[in-house]
Amino acid sequence: MNEDPNEDAKLDEIVRSGPGGALALAGIATAIVIGLWFLFYFAVFLPRGVIQ
Q: 3: which residues sit within 8 A by CB, 6+ positions away?
């Protein structure tokens, strides 16, 4: 374990702040995937028209 109590306090502060960066990254990645899906839908499926 860490011997420096100052270092432990810094670590506790980081852990207490939560996973903000990971959630932001996941949100951005999800938005990119959804955006690509819409791009594919409008660029490929709609121009082909209705399949009968």
A: none
Separation of alpha carbons 4 and 8, rounded Å: 7
- Please tell me the distance from the alpha carbon of residue 30 to that of residue 37, in angstroms, as a whole number: 11
Global pTM reads: 0.64
Q: How far apart are CA 32 and CA 39, in angstroms?
A: 10
Instruction: Dig out the tokens for 42 from the structure.
Output: 């409008």
**How many separate domains does the chain show?**
1
Q: What confidence tens digit (pLDDT) does each residue in 1-52 have?
A: 557 778 888 888 888 888 889 999 999 999 999 999 999 988 988 877 776 6
For residue 12, what are the domain limits? 5-48
